[in-house]
User: Fold this.
Amino acid sequence: ALLIGYSDHPFFYRVVVDLTSGKYDTTAFGDPSFGYNSIIEPFFAAQPDDYSFIITGDLQGSVGIYDWDTPQTSSPIVPARRFEAHEDGAVTALGWSSVVLATGSTRGTTTVWDALTLEPLRLFSSPVLRAAPGREFGGVSRIVIKQELLVIIANNRVMSWKVGQVHHREAPHKVKHARARNPIPKGQRMHRYDLHRVIKESKRELEQENAYARRTMGREREQRSTLNMLGLSESEAIEYVLMLSREEEKRRRVSHTIDEGVFEGDFEDEMFLPVASSSLTSHGPALPASNQSFPSLLDDHHSRTYPRAARPMTDEKVQVSPVFVPEPMEAGITISPLRIPASLPGSLTSTRSLPDVARSTSSSFEHFASISSSISSSTSSLEHSCSAWSTPLRSPPSSPHVGTPILRTSSTSTENHDRQCEEELRATPDLDEMDADLKFAIELSLAEARSRGEV
Assistant:
């Protein structure tokens, strides 16, 4: 038969093996209503007439005695005797003889019981004077009973007790042994030695605890001291760090936007003020002259207001400044000088320059004929005298749609218009008609000045 026991388990098992057939029977011993077994000591019969039994101790300080020869049953076998041996801890050691039963606990105490009646006979305290700081008392690890001698081993101490009669010694002679009072008794020397040893152990453990606390709590203390110096709490410090991170992210985004360059393909084709189809159809006679003088204005949608940038040979970034667009100073259509193509014929100081675009007056007045202004100062008097002011106004012409630039004339039409004006100057005009026209022109100028806010 085999005895199988487990630590921290309420049962132990008996396994009977039949070597011939290879079969085995298992029987469980234990009571689940009590604690787990902490020690199991078998005491098998040495003679045929003796009985075999098992003594167990559990974590609750109880002791159970089981009959090993109990027949096999399907249910666990409960102990034949059970009693509470120790109230201060679990049972850690067991010793038995035909006379007494000794049990030891985790607190170092040992109790001797009568083997038949299980009544307590003697209680031994722990041989260890006191436990070291932070440690438990050394439990009893072994109990040996040999006839009248009892040996108890607890921690690193050994205690023996012998059963027998106590013989009283005679008192020493007072005069003969008077000097023997001065020496320190042996028990006091041992107590002093133990006291010094305990003090050293306590100091060593305190140093270890302080070192551990410095390692684990040093960083937290440093952070708290830094926060106290700054006058911030933990939440305020977290908010400050979040604010710095947001500012850094904002600066990074701004720098990333500034560092972005222009690569090949970023320039898209644009048109330079395309002429509306309605204007081209309504001014059909002026198209041939304009086509001859300004062919670049009638190109397809690939015409540009500025020269195309050269294609880069690499993918390096290029800084490009924004195009300057002058701010308009008055109502109406304003053409930026940066958008005038360089292919226009003639010089800006020549007498036959590009006429200005017609302007529309305020909506509160009638639409009058557009007045052309010349860039050159040498021919301003001639053009003003030959303009619409020198001829009577029969009917006000319809002004074109605002926002649509119209080409007024070309170089050929300008020469024909100059010859016609010279012929009209040679003729003798009617003075009354000229006075009426002059008066009408003055009134028109005043009205236009009021609309602009100049008067």
Summary: Residues 277-310+333-397+405-452 form one domain. The CA atoms of residues 15 and 166 lie 48 Å apart. Confidence is low (pLDDT under 50) at residues 173-180, 268-310, 333-391, 393-411.
